[in-house]
Amino acid sequence: MKLTHLSAAILLILASCNIGDLEFNDLQLQDLNPGVAVPLGSATYSIEELFQDIIEDTAIFNNDESQLIVFTYYDTSVFEIGNDIVTIDDISSTGGLNPNLNVTAGVSTLTFPISKEFVFEYPASNEERLDSVFYSMGTLSYEVTSGFECDLDFTFILENTIDVSTDQPVSFDMSFNYSGSSPIVSTQSMDLVGHKTVLSQENGVNVFRATIDGTLTVNTGQGITLNDSLAFELTYSNQDFQSIFGYFGQDTVSVASSTIPIDYLENATSAGIYFKAPEMNFTFNNSFGLPIGLQLEDVYAKNSSGDSIFLTGSGVDSPFIINYNENDITVPEQSEYTINVDNSNLQDLLEIGPNSFTFPITGFANYQTPDGFNYVTDESSLETILEFNMPMEIRLEDFEQSISFDVEGSYNENEPDSVVLIINTINDLPIVGTMELQIVDADSMVTYTAASGIILEAPRYNVVGEIISPGETTANVILTNEGLEALKEASELRAVFTLNTPSSSVNDYFEVYADDQLTVNLSVAGTATIDL
What we know:
The protein is mainly β.
C-alpha cells in the first residue's frame, strides 16, 4: 500500500457535541493553512445576562426612554393604624338633679316640671380637638337612680349624639313608679353603630350636651323633701370610629420599620460593579386626613460582615411633608420623594456591599401645621412604595464572568497532530479587559489553561461618548501536547473574562444600553497526517 501524507481538515468530529442550541454566527477568523476552522459555537451576551449570575432576587431590568438599562428593586409597606393618630377611650360622665322642693303628703295629686341642661367632657387620649365622631362600634349606657318618694317621668336627650339615618338626637324615656321604697335604679343601653357625636370646644376641652325634661308626680300620700334627687351615669364604652374629624395635634408615630434583603448589592460590589447614579424613589399614597412629615435619618445599610452606614445628607436632614386630600376623604393623596447622590450619601451605602437596607420611617402628624382640619377613617392608610433604581451607568473593576462551550466527545479515533483554538470577540459594551481560555473536565475541574491575557478590545466612541463601532479581537491559541491530552477528556471550553470600564482608575462611568452586547465566537482548526 502506498502511503500518502494528506494535510486534512480538523479531525475533531463535532457530531457528538451538545451544541445544537448555540447560534452559529458568521465567523470572522484568520486563515489557517493547512487546516479548516470548524465552529464550536457562538454566544451573545447582553449586560443583563452578564450580570444574571449575581442577581438572584426580585430585581428587574428595565429600559428608560433612551433604552438605557435600569436595574430596579421594588418594595411596598402599608401603615394603617388609625388609632396611632387619634384614639377615643371609654368615657363616663355623671350628673344629677335636685329640684329643691319640699312637698308634704296631700290629699290631691300635684305635678312639678323638671328641666336641666348638662355639659360633659369628651376627652381624647392626647388632648386632640374632636369635631365629630362616626362610630363603627361602641355601646352607650345610661343608669339612673331616683331618690324621690314619688312618681317620676322624664326624657333624657343627648343633643349631640345623633342617629345618622334620621338626623335625630338620641333620647332615653324613663319612668319610675314609687311603690314605697327608694332609691329606684333603672338602666338602658344602645348600640352606637350608625350614630355620630358632634362636639365643640370649651376652654380647650371637647364637650357635648344633654338635657333632662320631665315631670315629678306627687300622688295622694306621697311627698318630696329638700334632699330628694336624681343621679345618673352616662357611659360611652368600647368605642371605635368609622371616621373622626377635628385637629389631632402633632404626635410622633412609627410609620414603618422594615428590613429589605438586597443580596445583589453585596454580590455586585464584591464582584466589582459600581453605579454612578443610584436613587430611591418613594411614592406615598396617603388616605389619612392630615399632613405627615416623614423622617429617613435612621435608614441604614448593612453588609454580611456587620458593617453598617446610615443615610445622611440634605435629603434626610429634616422631614419631608406628605400631603393629604382636604376635599375627599375617599381619595388618597399621592406624594413623591427621591433620595439620590445629590442629596444624600447613598453611594457610600452601596460601596460597603450591603445585603440589606433597614427603613425605620418616623412620621410627625401635622408637621409644621399647628392647626387645621384633620380626619381619619377606619380605612385610612399610608402606603409606601419604594422603587430602588440603579441606571446602568456603571464602573467595573475586575468584574469576572465566564462563557462556556460544550465540547464533550469532540475526538474520534483519528487524533490531530496539532490544534488551534480560535476565539473571536465582537464587543459593543463599554468595557475592556482580558480573557483566559480554560479546558474543563466532566467534574468541572480546570485541567488546562490554554491561554491567558488575551485582550478584549474596547469599542470606538464619538466625541459625545456614543459607540460608533464595536471592538473586535481574534486570537489563535495553539494547544500543546498537554492541552491536546486535556482536550480528549474535556467536557467544556470556558472563556473567563476579567472586565473593566475604560479609565476605571479615575472613576469614569459608562452608560449601557439595551442593544449593547458582547459576542464570542469559538472555532477550532487543526492538521493531521492520515495513511491512505
